[in-house]
Structure formats: structure tokens, C-alpha cells
Amino acid sequence: MTRLQFHLVAAAGVLLLALAPALLSPFSITLMNFIGIYALAVLGLVLLSGIGGMLSFGQAAFVGIAAYATAWLTVKAGYSPWIGLVVGVVLTGLVAAILGAVTLRLGGHFLSLSTIAWGLATYFLFGNVPMLGQYNGISEIPPISIGGYALSSSNSIYYLIWVFVIVSLVLSANLLDSREGRAVRALRGGQVMTESLGINPFRVKLITFVIAALLSALSGWLYAHMSRFVSPAPFDVSVGILYLLMAMVGGMAYLSGAIVGAAVVTLLKNSIQDWLPVISPGASGQLEVIVFSVLFILVLQRARAGIVPLALRWLPRVQPTPPLASGSLVHRQQPERGQPILTIAGATRRFGGLLAVDNVSFEVKAGEILGLIGPNGAGKTTMFNLITGALPLNQGRISFLGQDISRHAQRQIARAGIARTFQHVKLRKTMTLLDTVLLGTYGRTSSGFFAGVLRLDRAEEARAQAEAMRQLQRVGLADRAFELAGNLPLGNQRLLEIARALAADPALLVLDEPAAGLRSAEKAELAHLLEALRAEGLSILLVEHDMDFVMGLVDRTVVMDFGAKLCEGTPAVVRSDPRVQEAYLGGVA
Ligand SMILES: Nc1ncnc2c1ncn2[C@@H]1O[C@H](COP(=O)(O)OP(=O)(O)OP(=O)(O)O)[C@@H](O)[C@H]1O
């Protein structure tokens, strides 16, 4: 399907939505209103949990904060619902920023557990504060008015709800297709990967968390003025779980999954409410919970990815948008060949009583490939982690381009010009090759969330895309730019990681066992690429096990054993050193 056809289909969908009030019964429109209101909250959850990887059970609390804020302001203080919208959104954003700042550093399921805690706390707060009507809630909330026209009927508020849904969907899609959106998509790759790209994962998580809360706030505002009544029950943690179910049914990783999931679960809930009283009069409330619990488990077991990816398999693929590709990002002036660029002086790292790196000193010079080798447990990986900032030094000093980086965080080191790859490839499998390499340009570009959402970033994005295409060409993967990273064989995935690292325009490339797991043809291709990069003036530090690969490629080698530096020199010198033969080569030379 071409882009034009896709836009025509989308326009037809919007037209159908616009005609719905003329075609459907008022009851169906009320259901559609609920679907739209749920979809807004679920859209936030998709961004937060499905795409950003932060599982939240507490999204209903944010819906509630905005709903109560507008209810109180309009009923008790007599303000317009539009003031209620502004205050509701600001208040929800503030609460989310504070909660996020406190909880988002928690790893793994501790974050999810904390979302349950504040979900419950908010529910009890609503139910116990006399000003908020306690468990009776606040009633007689006025309808929203536009230019003196009150949106008091289902049909009239319908348009407002769906305008909010469509605008939020489009803006969220814009975000995901921008510099910061790619950072959100990278979060699931873990802290070490995101930091290695110069991204501050905590900041990205916090902003995503606030955006998700703001979408919930819009949902809460519309809910309050559509229902004209708020009470604690619709903002309970169980509703937060229902939102999660909607996201999972629709497709957690897809923005459109929010609408599909909200629609399927709302329609199902409605039909359950029709037939459960017939099966079991008097117990339908409890049975509904059981039916949804069973559904949740079934979805987890059978269709974890949701409906949207299933449907996408049958629908024609939309042609990828051609890269914007114009102009170029600023390139760094590479240091003069032969100048020391990385100096390690007396680096020491202990793990308890074990000296993993023991007073190691060496230099990497501009334009050379330096190999760091040693037998298993010699301390190479620890040394690698010290250089890239993944581990702090106990003693010693590391300087890069004359700057002391010993105490720098990983992302500062990345931004200073050291780009790395990983022994176990760290790629987001569902990102295209182009997007993967674009991630590498993060530290060289500056468009923020706001610019991304409003598409004010296109000029910079065009330069970044041109750069990403150039790096893909450099590693020989340009013709596969729109394929998914997960579909590549391991050898190509390693090349892709190198392209991503090169997109950061580093002065030093550090590679962690790049030949591990590669077939000999792939190794030859990799060696050829590294030689070409050296010829262009790039400096490379290679931590590698594969002796043939290292010795045929590097200018100099540093050998480590038992945490200490054993010797250093050209491959010929190192090969003939008896200490090395004894410790590592076992007489191979
Ligand atoms: N996080 C850690 N906690 C405790 N000990 C560690 C830790 N990381 C590494 N070590 C120990 O430090 C020593 C050096 O390990 P390191 O992984 O740096 O060696 P290596 O040369 O990279 O080995 P390999 O080639 O097997 O990866 C080993 O004895 C290892 O068990």
C-alpha cells in the first residue's frame, strides 16, 4: 500500500467516525464515547508500558486526579470546565512528575508494585476527603460548552472526545518517529545500552511517564463532563488493570492497539453485562470480574502481542517513508594520527577481595587499532567497563582527548566521543535498521519532545537520516534500511551495531568481542570494515578472544593476565613473548 492509499484509508476511517452519530443509535454513540475516553488513557499506557517498558497498574489514578480536579472546580468553585481542563492537566502533570521522580529509579517489578501502591492511595484519598464528597463523589458536574453550545448529549460530546483521540494518536505517532521517541523505544534495551548512546534514560522515562499521565488527564476531564458525576470507583486499581487488559488485547506495542483494545474490551464488557444476569441473576457483578480475569490469563497465554500485530499480518504493508536525507550533521575534527587519545594510568578495580584490574596502564593512539587480549578471567571485560564508564574505578585515572573521564557517567563518556558495541548484541529487534542507526545520532542532535510531537524537528531529522543512511552504506547495509533489526543474521547485527556507533561520530570505537559467534566469511567482512575505518583515521580498541582475528588486524596489542598487564607491543613482538605463550597462546605462536 502506498502512503497516499494509507492516507485515503485513514481519511475514510475519520469520515466514518464523523458520520457515526447519524448512522448509529444513541446507545451505540454512548458506547463509542466510553471507547474514546478509555482509548486516551490506554494510549498513555501503550507509550509507557508497551513501548517504554514501564509497567503501570496505576493509570486510573491519573484519570481520577483530573476528573476530580475539574469536578471540584466546576461544581464547588463555579469555574468553567475549560479552567477545569487546564488545572486538571497541570495538577496531573505535577503529581506524575513527583511520583515519577521518586519511583522511576526503581528497577524491575518494584516500579510496577509502586504503581499499585499509589493507585490504592489515590483511591482511598478520593473516598475519604470530605471536600471531594467521600465515597458519594461529586454530582451535577456541568457539561462542557463551546461558544455557548453545551455538549450535554452523547452525540454532541462524541465529536470532542474523538477529536481528542485522533489528535493524541497523531501526536503520539509523531513523537515515536522523532529523536526522543526513538529514545523511548530504546528504553527496553536497558540502561547500559541507552546510556552508551548518550541518552539519559531517567529523563526519558520521566517525560514519558508524565505524557502518559497527561493523556489520562484528558480522559478524566472528558469522563467527568460526560458522566456529570465522579466517585472513587472508576479510578480504582482494578480499573487500572482493565486498562492494561485493553492495551494487551489491542497490542501493547502499537498506538492503534489502544483504540482496538478499548473497543474490544468495552463491547465485550457491555455484552457480558447483557447475558450474565440471564445466566446468574444477582451475581453478575462478581461474575464479570471472573470473566475478565479469565480473559486476562487467556490473552497472556495465547495472544500476548494483541490483535493489531495479528491484523497487520493480513493487511497490505504500508510502503516505508523514504528517508528525508538532506544536509549533514556536524562532524568532529579527528585528532592527528599517532597522538595519544585514550590514556589509562594505574587503573584498578576490585570486586571484594578480588583484584579484577590491577594497576593497568596503556594508551590508545589516534588512527590505530589496539587489541586488548588475555585468557578467560584476565580482566578484559572489567577494563572495558571502566573505560566506558559502566563501572567506576577504585584507583587510577582514565583520560580521553586530554579530559579526565574517570568519574564521568556512561552517557557523558559516550558524548565525549567514545562509542561502543556489545559482546551480546544489544539492538531493539522491532526497530528498522534506519531507526537503529538514527539512535546513534542522539548525542549529535538536540530536538526535544515538544519539537518531535509538533514535527518542528524535520530539518534536523533530515540531516540525521542522511547521516544514518551514510553509516548504513559504510557497513554495507543501506539496501536493507527498512528491514527490522531482529531479522538480520548475527554477523549483520554486529555490523549494524557498528553503524549505530559510527553514527555518533566517535573519535574512539571500542568493540567488545566483535568476532564472537561469527562465521569465517563474516569475520573477514568485519576485519575488512575495521581496516577501512582505520584508513579513514578512526581509532579502535578491540577486546577480543579470537587470536587469528586480532593478530591479523591490530597495530598493537596489550595482553592482560590475572588482572595485570603482562606485556604490550606489535602482534609479532607479543606472539614471540614467552610469558604470553605460557599464559595465553599455549605455544600456538
Ligand atoms: N561484577 C563482578 N563481581 C565479582 N567479580 C567479578 C565481577 N565481574 C568480573 N569479576 C571477576 O573479575 C575477574 C575478571 O573478569 P573479567 O570478566 O573482566 O575477565 P575477562 O578477561 O573479560 O574474561 P572473559 O574473557 O572470560 O570474559 C574474574 O575473576 C571475574 O570472575
TrEMBL record:
The keyword Magnesium does not apply. The keyword Magnesium does not apply. Residues 342-587 form the ABC transporter domain. It is a multi-pass membrane protein. Keywords: ATP-binding, Cell membrane, Hydrolase, Membrane, Nucleotide-binding, Transmembrane, Transmembrane helix, Transport. The chain crosses the membrane at residues 34-51, 58-75, 81-102, 109-126, 157-176, 206-224, 244-268, 275-300. Its main location: membrane. One of its GO terms (cellular component) is plasma membrane. SUPFAM superfamilies: P-loop containing nucleoside triphosphate hydrolases. It is found in: Cell membrane. Pfam families: ABC_tran, BCA_ABC_TP_C, BPD_transp_2. One of its GO terms (molecular function) is ATP hydrolysis activity. InterPro entries: AAA+_ATPase (IPR003593), ABC_AA/LPS_Transport (IPR051120), ABC_transp_permease (IPR001851), ABC_transporter-like_ATP-bd (IPR003439), BCA_ABC_TP_C (IPR032823), LivM-like (IPR043428), P-loop_NTPase (IPR027417). PROSITE patterns: ABC_TRANSPORTER_2. This is Metal-dependent hydrolase. It comes from Reyranella soli.
